Amino acid sequence: MIADKMVSLVKNSSAIRAMFEEGKILAAKYGAENVYDFSLGNPNVPAPVQVKEAIIEELNKEDPVVLHGYMNNSGYEDVRDAIAQSINKKFDTAFTEKNIIMTVGAAGGLNVILKTLLNPGDEVIAIAPYFGEYNSYVSNYDGKIVVVSPNTVDFQPNLEEMEQKITAKTKAVIINSPNNPTGVVYSEATIMKMADMLRAKQKEFGTDIYLISDEPYRELAYDGVEVPYLTKYYENAIIGYSFSKSLSLPGERIGYLVISNEVADFEDVLAAANVATRILGYVNAPSLMQKAVAKCLDAQADVPYYDRNRETLYSGLKEMGFECIKPEGAFYLFMKSPIADEKEFCQAAKKHNILIVPGSSFACPGYVRIAYCVSYETIVNSMPGFKALAEEFLG
Amino acid sequence: MIADKMVSLVKNSSAIRAMFEEGKILAAKYGAENVYDFSLGNPNVPAPVQVKEAIIEELNKEDPVVLHGYMNNSGYEDVRDAIAQSINKKFDTAFTEKNIIMTVGAAGGLNVILKTLLNPGDEVIAIAPYFGEYNSYVSNYDGKIVVVSPNTVDFQPNLEEMEQKITAKTKAVIINSPNNPTGVVYSEATIMKMADMLRAKQKEFGTDIYLISDEPYRELAYDGVEVPYLTKYYENAIIGYSFSKSLSLPGERIGYLVISNEVADFEDVLAAANVATRILGYVNAPSLMQKAVAKCLDAQADVPYYDRNRETLYSGLKEMGFECIKPEGAFYLFMKSPIADEKEFCQAAKKHNILIVPGSSFACPGYVRIAYCVSYETIVNSMPGFKALAEEFLG
């Protein structure tokens, strides 16, 4: 009696849930410290202390009727202004509070902008490998996801194939850099080429193609790599940001959309996104957390911690003979499965109490995702297990 | 270039936004204290002090990785358990954490359950007058809202008409008691009759009809009136609760769904609601606020404050000759417009700096909604304006 659409979603979802359950069973059997759970993108470093201080300061200072009350569905004006100024300072842009819509995390922001833009049958391009939830977000509004196949050389987007897949029905492109699951940062050269191509396609079809940039990992970039700010390269760019990873607040559901003045039908998009926020049932991003993050725009979670994990994991796996690309950002490492069926490899890893996610979940079979937002000890202690897998599969 | 569905929504929304803007202009012109804004259901009494204490206690005690982290999409097990126990104590039910799904307010909960249940074209019954946002929530999932016309005698649901409007396509009925906009509480007799009728209709059509109870105002009931707990009267009842009004936390977006074991296809509904929470982009209800409300289940906002407003407003308006039903709950008073076109009456009220909402917004023209979640002074000081309106329109 549940909705038809939900039946298959529940079935697929059960597979992932089964993995969690298995992890719990393993932990109960062998002790949590002997299970190496690399399956989840849940930050293991705590929120910076400024977050706690900001929350307490707000509780002590602000009128509770304001602090916990309704505001404009797009968020508190002072919070949005602080965010606009912070972006301007970092990226030399010229946003105002008008350009910012506070959202229930990046997932909420993506849903708001897709609800705003999509008519049934509209096409949305996703570049494999990509976060599988995009399928559901696009399907929520009866859009059709069109997948660009992975470029397994360096995991930069396959722009030639992308160009071929853009049609008159293409309403949006979703990109995610630093990328989940590869950790790759799309280079400035990539972004410039993509922007030129999209502009040409807009002209060819007489359409607007919105480039939606999903950026929960923007602040997690290593070795000084630059993450291009999309609105500087393409007029129809919309940014979806989240504080989930930068401030280790994934459960708080706090993020924002940036809709620049140059976006086609700017005023309409802005008004519709405001309404979408309300009618999707979010109503507004959580109020206290809006005020708190506005005070922590220069704070950051312990990125060096992830960096050490990254170096240790990457060099360890390379040394054992595994093939993988060095992540430049996020907290994921994408490793080539030594056998074609990566699900079988994930099963084999489980025998060593190592939990990793098949690349199929990201439209990129033959690879596995290792989320290294875990304790350093987990990385170190998992090495013998990986070593055994190397011996078993790489000979 | 925005979605077709959004165009009309933006247009309609602009009318309400225009009212807020008008209120701001009036406040700037005459001083905020001389503008009587009864348009919004935004609690004016502060959250009870326990909320602040609970938040600070959690911040001091709990590991931030847990406190701000991801949990099961349905919410923290300990929070859900505390809520289940609290409901059991109050209503003599037998829920466990399994029956509770934490949601981004009641609006989030309604969207989750409608996403869970509705196939395109499925019908959802709403009983006028009702909260206009239900139209959008049902339309989000391509459902069709079917309106039962208002019973303006006592604003209990018109069960005869409801019975006629139930078809084989009726998937759900949404009720809201204490009611927005009337303040009426649906009596136990009403609920029992409705439950019997729905059971008969289920049998007639061989279908399941879910009764969704939207209960943000449950705790705001006056004169000791009982608000029946729906799961005790009807097997296929699902409760959507919010702490927005009971704890004055509307901006925090925190509430829950209760899905009882007796609901048809219980396990499927539960699993689908969990998935819907994730894919709609909520992911989970805000984490810190989950922990906080779990400690405040016996706390309450200052209901006697609303009660004094209610008495003063009601007796004042009655004395002037206005026709209205005495609210038993919530913080709304539904008054008959002295002229058929209540929008014209709302315009006339504006001349006295009184902002009220036309009943048309609730599918009940000829009436106006007065939200009395305002300061007592606002009530008292608005009386001369209402008096002038009485003289102008009632002679």
Structure explained in plain terms:
Two copies of one chain form a homodimer. Chain A is 44% helix and 13% strand. Chain A is an alpha/beta fold. In chain A, strands 2-8-7-6-5-3-4 form a seven-stranded mixed beta sheet, with helices on both faces. In chain A, strands 9-12-11 form a three-stranded antiparallel beta sheet, covered by helices on one side. A two-stranded parallel ribbon of chain A has the order 1-10. In chain A, α2 crosses α10. The interface between A and B is large, with 78 and 77 residues.
Q: What is the topological layout?
A:
The structure is a homodimer of 395-residue chains.
Chain A: H1 4-30, E1 36-37, H2 49-61, H3 64-67, H4 77-91, E2 100-103, H5 105-117, E3 123-127, H6 133-140, E4 144-148, H7 159-165, E5 170-175, H8 188-205, E6 210-215, E7 237-242, E8 255-259, H9 266-279, H10 287-294, H11 303-320, E9 332-336, H12 342-350, E10 354-355, E11 357-358, E12 367-371, H13 376-394
Parallel strand pairs in A: 1-10, 3-4, 3-5, 5-6, 6-7
Antiparallel strand pairs in A: 2-8, 7-8, 9-12, 11-12
Helix pairs in contact in A: 2-10, 4-10, 5-9, 11-13
Write a concise keyword list for the protein shown above.
homodimer; 395 residues; 3-stranded antiparallel sheet; 13 helices; 12 strands; 13% strand
Short description:
Chain A is of the alpha/beta class. Helices cover 44% and strands 13% of the residues of chain A.
- List low-confidence stretches of chain A: none
Based on CA atoms alone, the radius of gyration of chain A comes out at: 21 Å
Looking across the biggest beta sheet of chain A, what order are the strands in?
Answer: 2-8-7-6-5-3-4
Task: Count all strands of chain A and give the number.
Answer: 12
